[in-house]
Specification:
Helix content: 10-25%
Distance between the termini: 91 Å
Strand content: over 45%
Number of domains: 1
Structural class: mainly beta
Mean pLDDT: 81
Length: 147
């Protein structure tokens, strides 16, 4: 007896998830294999491979080794290896990547930086006065400096 079914080859892969068009899911998902999103996912997703179809929409914190974006991501997208943003793809928010490929027409709105360049992904530094000394500290500093 054959293992074929009407769901397609994508559902045959162990450790994978397929979110169909018109389906909305909310929560935290850890997928060891491939995540295919043609519907809407709200929350957190961690996957080895991510494919966002043209009708797919992700909102939240997304982590993947490789990602192919035909649809839309919103919030934070971290791709440690290869990120491809297709002509129909939209990446909104903070995105980081190992390698980046954007087709003509693909859109990035927000902050984007390589994963190993963490300084570009963080908030701007807050400047504070870290050199406030008492008068005793100032006198001992002045004495040490004059020697």
């Amino acid at each position: 007896m054959s293992k074929s079914n009407n769901y397609g080859e994508q559902n045959e892969q162990k450790g994978s998830i397929f979110i169909g068009e018109g389906v909305t899911v909310t929560g935290s998902f850890s997928i060891p294999g491939r995540a295919v999103v043609n519907g809407t996912l709200n929350g957190e997703l961690s996957a080895d491979e991510l494919l966002v179809g043209e009708q797919g929409r992700l909102v939240g914190k997304i982590l993947a080794r490789n990602a192919d974006i035909h649809g839309q991501t919103n919030d934070t997208l971290t791709v440690s290896n290869h990120l491809v943003i297709r002509a129909s793809g939209r990446v909104n928010g903070k995105a980081s990547y190992g390698e980046l490929e954007i087709e003509r027409g693909g859109l990035v709105a927000g902050t984007i930086a390589p994963v190993d360049d963490k300084s570009r992904m963080s908030e701007p530094p807050v400047l504070t006065n870290i050199l406030s000394h008492s008068s005793e500290d100032k006198d001992s500093f002045d004495a040490a400096e004059s020697q």
